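Tokens for chain A. Residues wanted.
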């Protein structure tokens, strides 16, 4: 075992062989600062400006929107950073380490929702990359790729969708080593272009009108802004952190893992959120346009000479986020116990993304309504599971991060830990029952605990139930585990000549 946090990276590019097994200490390399570019490249996206518009559109003042957004980002990103510490401590991806808490089979419930969350984000990102590329072609070659109203043709959209999906899958299939290299260059490129973009946006801000809007949200609306920021950024990443940190040496300082993860996510989105709030406060029509087409409404403000290269960078940044997500979704499928190759999981992901993108592009009436509703609904489960896992870190640390706890009962783990599962099911019911949805289809599965009167209250419409569910889940689990001292240790069979407690069996292919 090495204590170094500066081990050299393995030479030569190769397809990753590790799956949900613990990465051996001999294969660990890098330092925690390497986590910054992978998260930065994902989040330095024009979507960050749209997020600022969305938070402002809740009915907050300019400075309320900015402060609520940044607080929400920091709170949720710190949680991602803390959960990422489990990666170097165990060498396991996050959704395998959560077996410590929920049990081998019990872990399949939060893992399934983590996979759905992952796919939802990939659908959103690849859809936006496809529509951006199609819009670019429609402007460059209108006779071939545009309709009479200037919008791209169906074949143009489909062509860009196939191209975006193919690029994402081809890089993701190689795994951790290639992703870490690619994302580093993407971070520099998108960061540089975003700086130019920000300067070009400044003339569109009417500085004399900033802060003079009539909107001023009350406390619950402000909390709703914090919650919305948390669901748009950090809470959706809770199940990813350890996937990229597990190749770090085991004794990498936790503070550095948390810092670089938090900084990589929150820094770019916070800067872009401020710009988005400024634009929305001085241009009321922008909020409505961003709800329907978040990227097009912003790129239309650019001079044509920059619109073309920046559209290409937007596509690259969106696909960068999709690549890391597809990689983690393969790990999620393995954590579910699906015995599949990396090629098979890639094909399955492609089919699911295809159906989801079709809904988002051709059925949904509003990108914002569907996007916000999906985030809130899935964050109820993921946020609650993350809160429970954070509480369980105290137990896992006390037990020395023993990776045999990820095994089945009889080999050091448990098939299910009812304390964690009861806490998660209760929190999920409370959360789904107390949020609302602007999407008519998602609305059927939420809000069942609300009366007709409370359904239209700020508490419900701001989806504060997401935070309530996290507090309920974490509180119940803490009470059962530490208050009532229900530890539920792992179950190990009696050693015999043929049956012994074993470490987590390697499953090295995706």
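Reply:
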């Amino acid at each position: 075992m090495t204590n170094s946090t500066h081990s050299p990276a393995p030479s030569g590019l190769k397809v990753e062989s590790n799956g949900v097994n613990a990465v051996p200490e001999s294969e660990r390399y890098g330092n925690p600062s390497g986590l910054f570019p992978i998260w930065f490249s994902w989040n330095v996206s024009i979507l960050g400006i749209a997020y600022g518009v969305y938070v402002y559109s809740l009915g907050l003042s300019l400075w309320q929107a900015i402060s609520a957004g940044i607080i929400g980002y920091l709170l949720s990103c710190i949680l991602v950073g803390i959960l990422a510490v489990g990666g170097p401590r165990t060498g396991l991806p996050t959704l395998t380490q959560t077996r410590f808490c929920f049990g081998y089979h019990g872990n399949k419930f939060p893992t399934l929702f983590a996979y759905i969350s992952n796919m939802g984000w990939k659908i959103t990102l690849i859809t936006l990359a496809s529509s951006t590329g199609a819009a670019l072609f429609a402007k460059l070659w209108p006779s071939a790729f545009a309709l009479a109203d200037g919008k791209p043709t169906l074949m143009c959209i489909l062509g860009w969708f196939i191209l975006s999906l193919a690029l994402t899958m081809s890089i993701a299939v190689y795994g951790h080593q290639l992703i870490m290299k690619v994302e580093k260059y993407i971070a520099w490129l998108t960061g540089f272009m975003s700086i130019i973009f920000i300067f070009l946006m400044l003339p569109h801000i009417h500085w004399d009108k900033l802060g003079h809007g009539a909107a001023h949200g009350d406390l619950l609306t402000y909390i709703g802004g914090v919650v919305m920021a948390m669901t748009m950024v950090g809470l959706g990443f809770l199940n990813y952190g350890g996937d990229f940190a597990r190749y770090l040496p085991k004794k990498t300082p936790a503070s550095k893992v948390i810092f670089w993860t938090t900084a990589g996510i929150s820094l770019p989105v916070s800067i872009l959120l401020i710009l988005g709030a400024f634009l929305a406060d001085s241009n009321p029509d922008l909020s409505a346009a961003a709800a329907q087409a978040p990227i097009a409404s912003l790129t239309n403000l650019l001079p044509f000479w920059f619109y073309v290269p920046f559209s290409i960078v937007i596509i690259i940044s969106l696909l960068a986020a999709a690549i890391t997500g597809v990689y983690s979704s393969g790990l999620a499928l393995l954590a579910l116990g699906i015995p599949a190759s990396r090629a098979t999981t890639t094909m399955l992901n492609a089919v699911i993304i295809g159906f989801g993108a079709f809904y988002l592009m051709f059925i949904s009436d509003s990108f914002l309504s569907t996007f916000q509703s999906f985030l809130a609904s899935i964050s109820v489960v993921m946020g609650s599971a993350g809160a429970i896992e954070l509480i369980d870190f105290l137990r896992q640390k006390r037990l020395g991060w023993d990776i045999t706890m990820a095994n089945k009962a009889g080999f050091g783990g448990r098939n299910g830990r009812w304390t964690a599962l009861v806490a998660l099911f209760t929190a999920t019911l409370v959360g789904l029952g107390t949020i609302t949805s602007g999407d008519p289809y998602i609305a059927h599965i939420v809000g069942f605990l609300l009366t007709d009167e409370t359904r239209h209250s700020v508490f419900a419409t701001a989806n504060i139930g997401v935070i309530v569910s996290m507090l309920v889940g974490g509180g119940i689990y803490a009470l059962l585990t530490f208050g009532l001292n229900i530890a539920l240790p792992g179950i190990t069979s009696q050693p015999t000549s043929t049956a012994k407690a074993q470490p987590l069996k390697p499953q090295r292919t995706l």
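The chain is about 65% helix and 0% strand. The chain has one domain: 26-481.
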